[in-house]
Design brief:
globular; 13 strands; alpha+beta; 446 residues; five-stranded mixed beta sheet
């Protein structure tokens, strides 16, 4: 009977009207309460003030969406998340001296009550199922009690299936949110297991099952997107498929705000993880999509000029270095490797040491090495130049405004480019280890 009542509630969930949240946390009077709404990877602060002398406050705000994930913290405590329905007058109460999630009571919110009850029931059933699995290992195969355990497990699984079937059929927000929560847990669990079957399952969920319009305001955006990165790293089976998968998702996203948030996050991830091909793939799609601003369209078209396979910009070198200038712009080597760096940059110094350790190998394999510094201090540049085993090292003392930095769109240091003897860009990265891996593969093919 309880299950039937629960399922009935999903399809006929009542609503209350109003647009406010009341907080009552008496043991934390005069402490700062901060509230924010999750929108993709962004957190929009909607309230930041001290509670009154009774530890109370009322928050009134408007949102264009019916339901959003709202997070709050008191005195910089761990964030606590609830679902805010703009038709509910929610009260959040805590009469304890602790700021843990289980110390808070949410009243007048059918949305949160329904979701909590369902997830609590599912978790209890899952716990019982796991307990039976453990108990089963304690009995011999002929023990009659083992059959009872198996029967009980089947009954539990049937209850779980009944709930999941009802969730799949329901069109209420509560049911959709619970499905998304379950999906987020499944994706996270499968991405952390190091085998192709689990990672394939996680990838299929990510591409085909996640409702990104719902995900945007759910509070699960960052956990889901972050966990899926395990699917696409260099040791994973879907390396260099991130761009393709992002594009397939972008094609399904309807709302422009969500579309832009997702592609900006995807480009940021690709850039930070040095997934060059994925980033270029996404930019190429965006240029053709007709769904980006003129500013971003211009930016991505400029980036496109430096995509792999494009002609390299001509190097702009100081006139005072005529001999070096001629050799750098007219390489007779198989490959030219460019390094953009800054003296004193920790990451740059680490990568330069790796270059120095492997410089003889580069030289023996007919690779011309050319470096450009964003230094603005000539003394620092000259001192650094003395320690470098290559002669083609340049600095205009203009910092990141150096024409080569600008022509090669260098935003961070260090950055490496590899150019073939026909002047085309064939590789770029931020890491010298990747440079050597690429060179090994490239030279084997020659």
């Amino acid at each position: 009977m309880r299950l039937l009542i629960f399922l009935f509630f999903f399809f006929y969930c009542p609503s209350f009207f109003g647009q406010s949240i009341h907080f009552s946390i008496p043991h934390f009077s005069d402490k700062e309460l901060k509230c924010w709404i999750d929108k993709g990877s962004r957190a929009d602060t909607i309230y930041k003030q001290k509670l009154n002398n009774f530890g109370e406050t009322n928050i009134n705000f408007t949102t264009s969406e019916e339901n959003v994930s709202l997070a709050f913290s008191v005195q910089n405590s761990e964030p606590i998340r609830i679902l805010y329905n703009k038709n509910e007058n929610i009260s959040i109460l805590n009469s304890t001296k602790e700021l843990k999630s289980n110390s808070f009571i949410i009243e007048n919110s059918p949305t949160n009550t329904t979701i909590f009850n369902c997830l609590f029931q599912l978790q209890n059933l899952e716990n019982k199922s796991m307990l039976i699995n453990k108990m089963s290992s304690l009995y011999e195969a002929k023990n009659p009690f083992l059959k009872e355990l198996f029967n009980e497990k089947n009954r539990i699984q049937q209850k779980i299936s009944t709930i999941n079937d009802s969730l799949a059929l329901s069109t209420t927000f509560e049911a959709k949110y619970i499905r998304l929560k379950i999906l987020a847990n499944e994706i996270t669990a499968n991405t952390t297991v190091n085998n192709i079957e689990n990672k394939t399952t996680a990838r299929n969920h990510f591409i085909n099952d996640v409702d990104f319009d719902l995900l945007y305001s759910s509070g699960f955006w960052v956990p889901i997107v972050r966990s899926t990165l395990h699917i696409y790293n260099e040791s994973a089976p879907f390396y260099e498929r991130f761009g393709d998968d992002v594009i397939s998702i972008l094609k399904k996203i309807k709302k422009e705000e969500i579309f832009e948030t997702f592609y900006q996050d995807a480009l940021f991830i690709s850039d930070n993880l040095d997934w060059v091909k994925d980033k270029e793939n996404i930019e190429n799609y965006l240029i053709q999509s007709g769904r980006i601003s003129d500013e971003n369209l211009l930016k991505f078209k400029n980036n496109q000029k430096l995509h792999l396979g494009k002609k390299s910009p001509k190097l702009q070198l100081p006139n005072s270095n005529n001999s070096k200038k001629n050799s750098a712009n007219k390489p007779e080597k198989k490959l030219s490797m460019l390094l953009f760096y800054e003296t004193g940059c920790n990451h740059c110094e680490e990568e330069i040491e790796k270059v120095k350790q492997n410089f003889s190998l580069l030289k023996n394999n007919d690779v011309q090495f050319i470096s450009f510094s964003s230094d603005t201090d000539s003394a620092a540049f000259n001192e650094k130049a003395k320690s470098l085993p290559w002669s083609d090292n340049f600095c205009s003392l203009k910092g990141m405004e150096d024409p080569n930095f600008k022509n090669f769109l260098v935003a961070v240091t260090p950055t490496f480019y590899i150019i073939n003897n026909n002047g085309y860009i064939i590789y770029k990265t931020y890491q010298f280890n990747k440079v050597m891996s690429f060179l090994n593969d490239f030279l084997k093919q020659k």
